[in-house]
Amino acid sequence: MNGTGSMTRGQAAIGLLIGAVVLTVAQYIGWLPNWMHRLPETAIPNFAMVLDIIFNFVKDDLGLLTFTRTLTEGLEWLLDVSGNIFYGKNRWPNIGPMPWTGLAAIAAVTGYYLGGWRLSLLGGGTMIWTALIGQWTIAMQTMSVLAIAAPLAFVIGLSLGIAAWKYEWVDKTIKPVLSVLQTLPFFTYLLPAVIFFKVGPTAGAVATTIYAIPPMILMTTLGLQKVSSEVVEAGKMSGCSKYQMLRHVYLPSARTEILVGVNQVIMLCLAMVVLTAFIGMPGLGAKLLAMMGSFKLGRSFEIGVTIVLLAVMLDRMSKAWVVKQPEHFERGTPFWKRHQMLLLGAGLFVGFTLLSLVLPIAAEIGRKQDFSQGKELDNLIKGFLDIEVVKSTTWFLRAFVNVKILIPFRDFMLSIPTFAFIMLVTAFALSLAGRKQAVLAALFFSLVALSGWWDRAIITLYSVVAAVTIAAIIGLPIGIIAARSEKWSTRVLLMCDTAQTFPSFVYLIPAIMLFGITDIAVIFSILIFAMVPLMRYTIEGLRTVPPEMTEAADMSGATRMQKLWNVQLPLALPTMAIGFNQAIMFAFFMVIIAAFIGTQDLGQELQRTLAGTNLGKNFVLGICVSLMALTFDLTIMKWAADKKRALGLP
Amino acid sequence: MSADTPVISCKNVWKIFGRDPKKFLATMDKGLSYDDIRAAGYIAGVKDVSLDVHKGEMLVIMGLSGSGKSTLVRCFSRLHDITGGTISVEGQDIMSLPEKELIDLRRSKMGMVFQSFGLLPHRSVLDNVAFPLEMRGQDKHARRERALEVIKLVGLEGREDYFPRELSGGQQQRVGIARSLAIEPDIWFLDEPFSALDPLIRREMQDEFLRLQQLLNKTIVFITHDFDEALRLADRIAIMKDGAVEQCDTPDQIVLNPATEYVRKFTEEVDKARVVHAGVLVDPKAKGTGDPIDAKLTVHKMARMLVNDSRDFIPVTRGDNLLGAMPRKAALDILLGSEE
Q1: A206-224: per-residue pLDDT in tens?
Q2: Maximum distance among all alpha carbons in chain A?
Q3: What is the pTM of this model?
Q4: With contacts defined as CB-CB under 8 Å, which chain A residues touch B114?
Q5: CATH 1.10.3720.10 domain position(s) in chain A
Q6: Topology of the domain comprising A457-647
């Protein structure tokens, strides 16, 4: 790469940087003509219209709509069945709803089977809380969609994963699609779902399913590739046919990875199913949306707790399933003993169902019987916010940080001429990663400029950069300090693990509670969401520094600070960069959801498109977000990989 | 096929790894060395190997890691497709077999034991052992019965319901052995079966293996990197280096007449007296006097007699046949080293 006649990477990057500065200064002095600052309207091609024409062609002329509407009917039937079973929707088979006591018993027994008393308490407790707080029906509405979407995503993901493992061309086609899908804002999933699969639960289920498929594909492929060659050969020597190999050798041997995929499918489904409230899907998400909209913070908080409990329960149980290994029974163990947990669960369920026939409260907790403390919590929250210290802190943050730092920063970013900005990003990619990434960065940001949504894109980017920066300022020191001791590392990691299972929607609750509907609430919600991976990877990076290196530093007489700066941080940096990257991806995700609080960025426009049928615009907006996110993703991951190789880390 | 057709016969077998091995083999000069081939961007896993395995024989393939021994044995069962040459199993060219017949061959004739056991982690001991039977569609009752039989044979009775991870390494390999024997194969491949075990267990498993072989008398291809193990078990040893067979002969001959410098280095440290048998030292034309000795005795076992006896030529018999006589000096030379 070193200059053979031409400039080195670093020099080129500095050149671009100087160019950008010159342009920006010219803009401030007022020398820059307007068309150099922003692309003139006339230069912007109407991507949205072109996309619309294509969509309409595919939708109507190619008959995709008829096809998907047929699918819709099948899906609707499935959702009706699960709706009936979970919350008594008036549809075939008309046997539901299951009594909450019965379900609580099943959750408790399943928890005990998978992970002992603690999981049993978590499972049963979650169900009892949900029922007592009076959210049983809406929770079951959510669960009824989850019960269809998750298995669907599992089956599709598993099949595609197997196909990608088996056929190289499938793998090559799927990989780029997956990386785009994973950065595409979720609003972009929603509108096509609505157009092709009708508003409401069906569209919600489709969007949820599609959203949850990618990790399942990746985990399946990974698991199948990891099966040891001797096990494969043993299968072949046992005379397996191709199908037998897959069914009896590959899939069971990849059990762990596949179950990790199942865990991720469940968690993504839950996160998404809550968000589908934006397209009129009833359930916990819709209720939360309504409560936050009318600023009923107490109730919002309660729903948030329910969502979090459900998430933690599903996560812990599916993770416990991953590590659960088969145990042998002594010869001659009777049937009931081998299957005692199954029998206990079934028995309790039947028992409670019968009980609920005579005792209505065991079946359902009525409107006036619940223990919801919405009003009281509201007052409590108001009281808390009124405490002098809290009040002055939030006021300081609003008045000082927002007005003196964040808003000027945003205005500055907006003042940079489009070309200068593209040059800056290119310089960033060039200096960190390389020529290929720089070209892509320039291309991606030029496309964003051509989309005609530049200002909104920059505001989106501003929120991301501001939030991730603050998250780093707070999160990195916490990570570094926690990494010092085994005890604190485990604690903080556990906290991060748990926080990561929360559906992103609930992060809005504390933000709105503390800061109301303001800019700083947006930044705050992104910030806490993005802090999780930052802390986590910092700790992991520091903890995995090989002990002989820190010991060598100790024996060289390094102080704790010297050791940190000269040994631990440099070695942990690649891992920390991955955390940083994830934080940025999370931030791009959250900033779109924060549109709900009220922003002026791409997310806001995206949310607006949901009300109409403007698929072209929806896609242009979504792809803008995706392109910006991909630029960071490509650059930082390449840098981390290079650095790791240079350091000889695994 | 006649009685003396070799069970496995391979002629000029090549296995080359790389981008387009077939084309490379077709155009390359057959005299290229291993390093020449590597410089061309290919790896010669098996390099022009010809050898036969006879019925009831135990052939041990010995070599260091990377010498191609595991690749060669995988060519015998067509886990690897060979690049050039022919391999026939019981007179049938296995490279020409369609997939279905290949599967049938493995289901009825071949068993294989792996270095790291290759057990299916989600299946109990019983189900692992019954796996090949299940694959060929035997009914549940019959395969359970047969599986229990082999489990008993390898001494794992009572552990049928355990899962692999609940067993020690030695026990896991017993499961691997039981599985490979479940279909009553004629040909038994063992790929470094005892290398992953610690030395004490290894010794015990070797004894166990010899006991099984005496019971079953199968045609065996056994792979090892341990020369002592090879000497202990083999009827014949093939020593491999860089994909090629350096020498293929009985242990006695390898120790007495190493064909190449490489083989000689292996034999240097070996106590030849424990390897060489009376039968090998026989001069068929010589005539001895007095009581004959058995051809299967090693020099080591005859040591006391060799020192005390004063005959120059000792008659040697195999069964009832008189083979000739062994010069006592030759045996003493092996025991004590040559005079100079």
Answers
A1: 999 999 999 999 999 999 9
A2: 91
A3: 0.86
A4: 230, 233-234
A5: 457-647
A6: MetI-like fold (1.10.3720)
